[in-house]
Amino acid sequence: MNPVRRQQLDDALAARILILDGAMGTMLQAHHPTAADYGGADLEGCNEHLCHTHPEWVLGVHRAYLDAGADIVETNSFQGSSIVLARFGLEGKSHELNLTAARLARQAADEFSTPSKPRFVAGALGPTTKSITLRGDVTFGQLRDSYSVQARALVEGGVDLLLIETAVDTRNVKAGLLAIRTLERDLGIRIPLMISATIGRSGTMLAGQTVEAFYASVSHGDLLSIGLNCATGPDLMSDHIRTLAQLATTRISCHPNAGLPNEEGQYPETPDSLARQLDTFVRHGWLNIVGGCCGTTPAHIRALAQMADGRPPHRVNPSGVRS
Questions:
Q1: What's the whole-model pTM score?
Q2: What percent of the chain stands above pLDDT 70?
Q3: Mean pLDDT on 94-122
Q4: Where are the domains of the chain?
Q5: In CATH, what number does 3-308 get?
Q6: Three-state secondary structure along the chain?
């Protein structure tokens, strides 16, 4: 990890609310990729493989978000674990695909970085398609090993931090956390880590954990930030983000969907409506990092960047208790 960029990241987080990018899949699907674009019918739907077959598309997405004002772009590696890639017969290419994803995001971030506004890369690690608690279709060791390969490649590719996101099972997250901390010891470095869970309309993660239980389970991890993403629009995240802001002894992130999709799969929140709702979170002083998830576009991120400009970030309470 680049020590200069790490200091720049810390300085930026202390000074302002950072803007995370928006949806990768939404933007890639706008190209209407065919089976041939993915590299063959057997690979259709594997967005991560587009890093090899259409790196210009992936670079274009990163550049569009950076141009919209994103401080942090995520690698196109959300489902880049060997556990998920096995569905496409690509489990042996996890390192290669994640390394390429990181290098593409690094290239774009470096193109847009200036001394007054450095840009950063988050290595995205999704929840995989398996769950220890929900289905018992994977072991802790299998998850740990899969996350380890993915995280190592992302770090080698030049990311500035890692992001375990859309977490639905705390036990899965713990496997990822262990993999990353073991990698730190192997490499002799410290890796900034964001963790972001997804809370459904039921008020819990899919595996049943409340946001309080989730935080209690990972709070030992010396995290760069903890937060919520995906699942719903910001309206249904309000109580949970407030709770995290009161409990957490680290920074808070939030990157919601553009609302709940309708029966046609369309997301209802416009850039302006999403920014208005997240403005409430900012006014309450809850956020350090804000961005978008499914259904969001560069227009949404531009609106968020304009909304958050000049606004003070969440002030982390070391005690984790607020009056």
A1: 0.96
A2: 99
A3: 98
A4: 3-308
A5: 3.20.20.330
A6: CCHHHHHHHHHHHHHCCEEECCCHHHHHHCCCCCHHHHCCHHHCCCHHHHHHHCHHHHHHHHHHHHHCCCCEEECCCCCCCHHHHHHHCCHHHHHHHHHHHHHHHHHHHHHHCCCCCCCEEEEEECCCCCCCCCCCCCCHHHHHHHHHHHHHHHHHCCCCEEEEEEECCHHHHHHHHHHHHHHHHHHCCCCCEEEEECCCCCCCCCCCCCHHHHHHHHHHHCCCEEEEEECCCHHHCHHHHHHHHHHCCCEEEEEECCCCCCCCCCCCCCHHHHHHHHHHHHHCCCCCEECCCCCCCHHHHHHHHHHHCCCCCCCCCCCCCCC
